[in-house]
């Protein structure tokens, strides 16, 4: 394990901001924020948070937009040693209410930041205790209540993002291309936040894109995160009506695997700009393919990886230690210092990792993972449904989508709109089926269990 700095996270990031001084680090429209100005925001907000009684081990929930102030607040909350839970957009009211009930001492919204920024700045110190939980990163919430991956201050300090000496080769190559990195959606996104920290460490500028659709051209971006469906749309658009993407140097593809054909097509159309990452909320980055790596792979992992009956078990410097308040599932996934990914893969003769499938029943919609079991349970509660079975199907818009197979009750097949409304109200719109098919009974595998592979086919 690497030697830690004298102070824990976010000391390395604060040092980066201090060294940046008058260099632009954050840009939002015509507003430009320097490293010194952002560091001053962190100091003021941290002092304000301490004034509200927030300290090591206390829970704080952040319902914030994508602004320099929001980024500063995340760093400030870590500086005081709090347990930080970001609440991303798109959750149902019930899911947000659940998150805010998880031993939270303080809830912050954008309107609260002006009061904190009015505090006088105090010398910045980082009070996080190594064994304390530094942040909770929530999964999709498709089980009803979002699971929270718990990452300690020791783990965040050991992560490589703000430590150039620890950068794996693929990250070192990527860092050189992060002159102007787009952020959008939510800074509570692990991927969005981590690459923002990497950008600042690499000497680049974080650029806010209120509308990411044409932001590469409009804001002269050099890098952005994109999902596999988003990449397919961009490739198709460039073939049909090419935009000026001359500034683009890195597309950070995440959320789901790229097929070799799609990977090649994107490289042929967009040029050598694809960095195809593989990671999980539980682990952070596991591996990354650079533009020179074979299409269809996710590169050579710079972390410990074991294949156990084809399933990937990994150890990363910044991995989570478990699921907050969920010891049963923690014991299943976090095993003797390893994280069970529940993904299947293999290594080729040259050491490149290829993902081959999943060992869990999930659907990945817009790069967010949703468990199928709760979706089936919700559909089965409809009075006209005797049994419900859900499979993931390819979708050009979202990567994957939900296809529901139902055994009707008394020969009445529920309408698609009815099932969509039912599931959306319970689990959110991403879990709602895009198609429904009535069946008399499900196909059965030799084990006697329903055979979803036949349904998918």
TrEMBL record:
Record-linked CDD domains: AFD_class_I (cd04433)
Residues covered by the AMP-binding enzyme C-terminal domain: 375-449
Any one Pfam family match given in the protein's UniProt record, by short name: AMP-binding_C
Gene Ontology CC: membrane
Molecular function as annotated in GO: long-chain fatty acid-CoA ligase activity
Annotated AMP-dependent synthetase/ligase domain residues: 21-324
Keyword terms: Ligase, Membrane
Protein name stated in the entry: Long-chain-fatty-acid--CoA ligase
Organism (species): Lentzea flaviverrucosa
